[in-house]
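Ticket #4471: structure export looks truncated?
Reporter: QA, pipeline team
Priority: medium

Steps to reproduce: submit the single chain below to the structure queue and open the exported record.
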Amino acid sequence: MMFFFPDNNNGSRIILTTRLSNVACYFGSSSYFSLKLLDEDKSWKLFNEKAFLQERCPPELEEIGKNIAKKCKGLPLLIVVIGGLLKKSLRTQEVWENIAKDINSVLTSEEDAQSLDILSLSYSHLPAHLKPCFLYMGIFPEDSVIHVSEIIQLWIAEGLIKPNKTQSLEEVGECYLKDIVDRNLLLVGRLKLNGKIKFCTIHDLLRDLCIKAAQKEKFLYLIRFCDNPSGINKARRRILFHENFAEVNCDPLPSQTPESEPLTRSFLGYEGRLPLNVRLLRVLNVVRSNSDIDPSLNDILKQVNLRYLARNLYKSSELPSSISLLWNLQTLKIGGSERFVAPPEIWAMPQLRHLEFPVSISLPDPPLRSEEKDDDIVLKNLQTLKRVLNLKLTDEVCKRIPNVKKLKIMYFDLSKSSCYNHLYNIGKLHKLESLSVNFCGDFSVFQVLKYIVCSPPRSLGNLLKNLKFPTSLKKLTLSGSNLEWEDLTEIGLLPNLEVLRLGLHSVRGSKWNPIQWQFLRLKYLHIEYSRLKYWNAESFHFPALEKLILDTLHKLVEIPFGIGEIPTLGLIHLCDCSESAAISATRILEEQQSQGNEDLRVRIIFWSEYQLEWFKEKVASFECFNSNNLQLSHLL
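Actual output as written to the record:
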């Protein structure tokens, strides 16, 4: 390229456009301009240019036109196509309202097939191993915020992830998803502090293309409300339903011979239910259901080939011992209104990778190794264990879950000594990265109100101070621990800690004097419902901090001025904190902007509109008052 286009110092430039975010790196460019989706104002401006050229939009069509432009969700290609279509159509409210009802259907016409083909190129050029992963994104409803962990768990259960010797299946899945994002087929919704993607979204138009391609390739079969689930073709491998089938005939499929038995591998949906006599079923993901039509747990457990089970259950609170018959099960997510109790047999399910219960689950002590006939009793694949009630981390339990990475525990109505004994071996979980410990059970609205008017519950004293946390820990969340601020010294010494959340009744006391050379890698600090009044800190106490979140700190006098000097700090967020704390945050912003720091943002949320207006009067004279980096709002 350089041979044919020499630099003759004449100002010429080569512009390279690509759909692949990493292509610019191959051409020696240290940075590149990444086009973003248009905001509402720019979308309306582009729509006007294409629909009316040099003319003005008629007043009677302006509201409908803005609605059409908004529904394009910032995608320039869709705005251009819709604008071009409306330029040729009758300019009547009826015609425009029909277009507004179903924007994406416009591209199905032969006249606009070329635009559809252009948008399909990115999918057509995907590597073979990424195509089914992208098609799978069609299972989510429009405008869904997609949890990356969920979609990767589903990919693994479907067998779409190719294992390798150096990475876990989840790590390979993260690489797959990033590759699809880099090809601009998915949008990043939110990043984790380590730069990995936490949530993603898919544009409605790309989602429609995804579903059409999946149906064309017989990868996915979409059932609509008018369809009868009992008439499903036995060759359908993955069945998707977004509508409620509570009133549709859901009689079981007639008995079949093994040769003619349905080949359905996956039921994916968000409402209703489908027949459950499909022996080859691998994935059952129906997260919302009506308790009146809910199948029994025993019916579900007949699907012995299940790898992924996500379902709300209202008729049961105990998992039967037959759960162990699901010998291939990798992910188990059971929701509902009850706390579940697991049988001892759950420790004999070696394929389990993720065990999550939105309410809670009680795990029994595992049987001793000497009593086991099967040597394969260690859950080597288990990575996630969430909302376990009064978990006893005995030596035997720690040996059973050596590779767990995410652990969320609730201790309810236990003494200080019992909590200590339950957590004593936490340091033996050498792969643990995320730990959440709640010593008060679930927090109700009553408990939060009680915090405001009453004294905190009993202190657990030196409970956590005497524990040895694993050095692998990156994220720690505490609630109800009632530590002293000095007890955080041991936590601050964790070498890899990046996220610290201090919830309701986690720390008591009015003064915090952190010590230097601690929290060296902490990026995210969240303190809520605390009686902290004096916080004496400098920038060197939290040298890597990126986000500071303070919630309901009514007594805090001020945020230490030195916090603003942290070079990595990008956000100070206050919600329902003292007025003096809010003023100090504004002063920090003003000082940083006077020094040329335009990266720091301050977001302050007040309880009432009255408080907000009072604060505006107080800080109206500040130079940063009209800055875009200062965001003010109220809850009520």
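Status: closed, not a bug. The export was complete when the record was re-opened. Leaving a note from the reviewer for reference: The radius of gyration is 28 Å.
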